[in-house]
């Protein structure tokens, strides 16, 4: 910003100086030199400044100046040529784009979305999304990045209504083509790896991405969100596929395509850090994703414990006593427990109600059994209160009724898992198990 301001200030100073020269110069009527518009017997930068101001429509030329400005010496005042030039230059003055444009700088593609004095810069290569405010200063556009406060300026030249060029401070030239008429907010971007109910995956960065279909075929696309509407361009910009988009929660949206087909998109970012699997940042321990044997928080994690305490206090007010009968269980303790069940009931039966070591949610420090870890707890008043209220404290019933083939475990009305309030509410509202919510499996490999 500072640099741009200084440049503008210097420019204004030069203009004022030139204005003075022009008044002093004409009265003397010196020798005619073509291009010496201010008639001070030298062609220099002040002539250019006068010309620029004429072209900007700031003031007219008098007769002597016009003769000096007849550079091609055809005996005609060049006002006709100059006014055509003037029109082009004025056409780029203080004219900022609106809608969304694709910038191309040496083959690198960026999206710029412009709205009322503000906008969003989306860089698919770095994945960065930055909001900015924009001002115009004659033929200069000044971008101020909201987060960092840093300013970038560029000279803007409109080639036609469908394209313009930015010549940046850095010397880079970026050419722009029109993408869509609406300004796209950063919150409308569908960034990430999404798996869909039609067996497809979408990897989206910025306003473009890669689609992998059921058979593994890959195609590229661009898309343009506009409130509840979304337009996908598969393969090429001519191939338009419109749909209606509804964002259901922080990890899901649904598109109803033009033909009526509904497709549910589930965000799925699976990361393994120190042997621990996180899906969209959520620590997972189930039959597919084990914890390492040395993962040992030693107790229920403090956040989950204080959430339980709050739930316990409110349950008490409602007339129910809740207590934790089994909280954190180490890998080695789970190992003993599981082996005892296998010895008693056999492996197949034990696998339906007890986790193999490393696969127990109790090892996470985020899972706990309340009051009575047995099916006799189902349908008790406490179980009903927990099912109806635990999400308010950040918990979910981890193994709901009728979902054994998805979670891998029979119904456990007593086992809750801490997720934090926002997420627990989203899972509760969805009516899905955590596996369904994240589109993941819970199956032993053998
Ligand atoms: Zn449990």
What this model shows, in words?
- This protein is of the alpha+beta class and 446 residues long.
- It folds into 4 domains: 2-92, Type 1 dockerin domain; 99-180, Lipocalin (Beta Barrel); 190-267, Beta Barrel (Lipocalin), CATH 2.40.128; 280-438, Muramoyl-pentapeptide Carboxypeptidase, domain 2, CATH 3.30.1380.10.
- The protein contains 11 helices and 23 strands.
- Strands 1-2-3-4-5-6-7-8 form an 8-stranded antiparallel beta barrel.
- Helix 1 packs across helix 2 and helix 6 (331-345) packs across helix 7 (347-353).
- It is elongated and about 115 Å long.
- The two termini are 62 Å apart.
- The model is unreliable at 1-26 (pLDDT under 50).
- Bound molecules: zinc ion.
- Residues 362, 367, 369, 415 line the site of zinc ion.
């Amino acid at each position: 910003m500072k640099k741009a301001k200084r440049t503008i200030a210097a420019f204004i100073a030069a203009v004022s100086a030139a204005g003075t020269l022009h008044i002093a110069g004409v009265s003397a009527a010196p020798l005619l030199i073509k291009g010496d518009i201010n008639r001070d017997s030298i062609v220099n930068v002040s002539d250019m400044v006068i010309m620029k101001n004429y072209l900007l429509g700031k003031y007219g030329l008098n007769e002597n100046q016009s003769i000096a400005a007849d550079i091609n010496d055809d005996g005609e005042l060049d006002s006709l040529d100059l006014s055509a030039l003037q029109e082009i230059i004025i056409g780029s003055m203080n004219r900022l784009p609106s809608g969304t444009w694709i910038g191309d700088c040496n083959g690198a593609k960026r999206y710029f979305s412009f709205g009322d004095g503000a906008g969003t810069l989306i860089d698919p290569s770095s994945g960065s999304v930055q909001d900015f405010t924009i001002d115009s200063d004659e033929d200069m556009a000044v971008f101020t990045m909201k987060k960092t406060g840093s300013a970038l300026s560029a000279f803007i030249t409109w080639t036609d209504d469908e394209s313009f060029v930015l010549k940046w401070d850095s010397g880079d030239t970026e050419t722009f083509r029109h993408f869509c008429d609406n300004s796209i907010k950063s919150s409308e971007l569908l960034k990430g790896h999404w798996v869909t109910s039609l067996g497809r995956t979408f990897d989206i960065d910025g306003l473009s991405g890669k689609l992998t279909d059921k058979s593994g075929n890959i195609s590229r696309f661009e898309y343009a969100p506009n409130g509840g509407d979304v337009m996908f361009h598969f393969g090429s910009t001519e191939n338009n596929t419109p749909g209606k988009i509804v964002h259901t929660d922080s990890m899901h949206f649904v598109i109803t395509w033009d033909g009526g087909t509904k497709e549910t998109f589930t965000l799925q970012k699976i990361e393994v850090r120190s042997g621990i699997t996180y899906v969209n940042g959520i620590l997972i321990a189930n039959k597919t994703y084990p914890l390492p044997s040395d993962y040992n928080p030693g107790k229920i994690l403090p956040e989950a414990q204080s959430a339980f305490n709050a739930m316990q206090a409110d349950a008490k007010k409602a007339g129910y006593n809740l207590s934790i009968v089994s909280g954190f269980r180490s890998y080695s303790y789970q190992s003993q427990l599981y082996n005892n069940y296998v010895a008693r009931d056999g492996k197949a039966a034990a696998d339906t109600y007890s986790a193999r070591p490393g696969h127990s949610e109790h090892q996470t420090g985020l899972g706990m059994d309340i009051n009575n870890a047995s099916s006799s707890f189902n349908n008790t008043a406490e179980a009903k209160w927990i099912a109806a209220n635990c999400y308010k404290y950040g918990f979910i019933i981890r193994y709901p009724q009728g979902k054994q083939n998805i979670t891998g475990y029979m119904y456990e009305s007593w086992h809750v898992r801490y997720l934090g309030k926002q997420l627990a509410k989203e899972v509760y509202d969805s009516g899905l198990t955590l596996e369904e919510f994240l589109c993941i499996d819970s199956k032993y490999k053998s």
